[in-house]
Specification:
Number of helices: 8
Helix content: 25-40%
Number of strands: 14
Distance between the termini: 53 Å
Strand content: 15-25%
Structural class: alpha/beta
CATH architecture of the largest domain: 3-Layer(aba) Sandwich
Largest sheet: 6 strands, parallel
Number of domains: 2
Length: about 260
């Protein structure tokens, strides 16, 4: 790292160098040790950097420019492991990660269950985590999938709390019987919100938050309703996100017609 005209080498720990701050830290010094720590399900399939898209690259460069930092484009896996030597990685399921040959060392993360918002007996209702699935599967398929998902969520019973994705402009629940969150609660990561709400189930389309919650809260049921519709590859083998998420204990609800 560089500071006040001087430079020194430090170990860098980031989930990936896609965001401007982590990008700057990751690529600043080639002599620094680069360590990848798990960020959702990113390291468990062949997630590729989207920066070959000019519009995506320009957006990231603009974000970096706002805070006065350069931004380096990179290709290959989104985690940056194909662009430079990687000292090591930390993962909850090291036996499942892709491209293990890129890591000099791999260590297992041992997570401790988070604090429950209430006892298992008093947990009730569902938290629904929305996503902009139209960009992934197209408007016609997304429209049908949303209707099936709403029916599935209501079928679980109990009250439903709606959390929109930060990238969505909507704040109103798609079903009038669902409860909207206040602005503060909407800003909380879902992994923290579940403890506050004391809910029994979490449903989303294919959010990586499902994996994080399933790992931390064994008494909460997590369901993915669109994972089977998202094709991915694992070390070159074709599959879907359903395989990845189910490996973390997420239940796969197939909503395809």
């Amino acid at each position: 790292m560089q500071s006040a005209g001087k430079s020194c080498d430090v170990d860098i720990y980031v989930p990936h160098p896609f965001n401007p701050l982590s990008n700057y830290a990751f690529f600043l010094s080639e002599r620094s040790g680069k360590y990848i720590y798990q960020d959702g399900i990113l390291n468990y399939y062949d997630a590729t950097s989207p920066l070959d898209s000019r519009s995506c690259l320009l957006r990231q460069k603009a974000k970096a420019a706002i805070i006065g930092l350069p931004y380096r484009a990179y290709a290959g896996h989104l985690s940056g492991i194909d662009t430079t030597a990687i000292a090591g990685g930390f993962f909850t399921h090291p036996e499942r990660i892709v491209h293990t040959d890129r890591f000099n060392s791999i260590q297992k993360l041992h997570l401790h269950p988070g604090p429950a918002g209430s006892s298992a007996e008093s947990q009730s209702g569902t938290l629904f985590l929305d996503q902009s699935i139209e960009e992934s599967i197209g408007n016609p398929a997304a429209s049908a999938l949303r209707l099936h998902t709403i029916s599935f969520v209501n079928g679980l019973g109990g009250p439903v709390v709606y959390k929109p994705h930060y990238a969505q402009k909507t704040k109103s629940p798609p079903d009038p019987s669902w409860q909207a969150l206040d602005s503060h609660s909407r800003s909380l990561p879902a992994e923290l919100l579940v403890a506050k709400l004391g809910i029994k189930s979490v449903v989303s389309f294919y959010s990586s938050a499902l994996a994080n919650i399933a790992l931390n809260y064994s008494d909460i049921n997590c369901y993915a309703t669109a994972a089977v519709a998202i094709p991915v590859s694992i070390d070159g083998r074709s599959t879907t996100l359903a395989e990845v998420l189910s490996g973390f204990g997420v239940k796969i609800a197939d909503m395809r017609c």
